[in-house]
Amino acid sequence: MSATAMSNANFITHVTTLADCVGQTPLVQLQRLPEQEHIENGATLLAKLEGNNPAGSVKDRPAFNMIYQAEQRGDIKPGDTLIEATSGNTGIALAMVAAMRGYPMTLLMPTNSTQERKDAMIAYGATLIEVDEGMEAARDLALQMQADGKGIVLDQFNNPDNSQAHYLTTGPELWAQTDGKITHFISSMGTTGTITGVSRYLKEQNPDVKIIGLQPDEDASIAGIRRWPAAYMPGIFDADLVDEIMDVDQRIAEVYMRKLAKTEGIFAGVSSGAAAWAATQVAKNNPDAVIAFIVCDRGDRYLSTGLYNVDDSHIDNDADNAA
After folding, report:
1. Does the record bear Transferase in its keywords (predicted)?
2. What is the count of structural domains for the chain?
3. Which of 81, 157, 289, 315 is packed most tightly, with the most Cβ within 10 A?
């Protein structure tokens, strides 16, 4: 064998598939965001950087698992059209996995979602249908399309493969990355797959780990976080797995989103700002706590909102005091 052929063979042994790149995201310690009182009481704040997944969000995990498990059961086969209602990140992730595995993908999305998210779905080859009436209407339309024989709905809101993805991957990663020392886990709640899957795993390791979910307050509209009407509460949600639910003010979430970028170099969306704020609040009351929170995605999918161009110099103290 020639030297070139040997070199190529050595290279090939290290090649992986895109599917193998989902998960194993970094867990990083915040250095400058925590106020001095957090540092003095020994609390540690850790951010799980889910934007490092191939399609850029925590939703890569359930997207891959929902399609993979459906294949294993024989529920779908390459060439079948898949349908899903999404506010953005799940749709992008599903479009990526569908392209990877050979499925036409139809996504239904509220019209007010950011243009970056819409463009990303289309870039992966998905068909995008915009719905004026919001997420609930998008979910209803997806089910109607399935009833009309236009495809198969994966149904992230009621599909146990969603939360299973986090039970199998995110939870074990957090436990290993903290050497089993994690005391609090914080996650925004949308489909609730992340919080239920992670909670189930962590509480099996240590029932004393506190699980804190985030929902927008009555007046807030935060991408990726929902306050569901009772009729639309995700079927995969298990209230027994969540110890506390915190309401998040939209202005504070946006301030902390910008703080993450400017003081930590973590460029993320508004729901991640909400989680960072919640982590600081939990830290105040829990000396020596090890607090991990989910940074759901990357900030580049929100640039068109103009949210990063706001000067917080005159409201930072007000936001902290309001918190």
Report:
1. yes
2. 2
3. 157
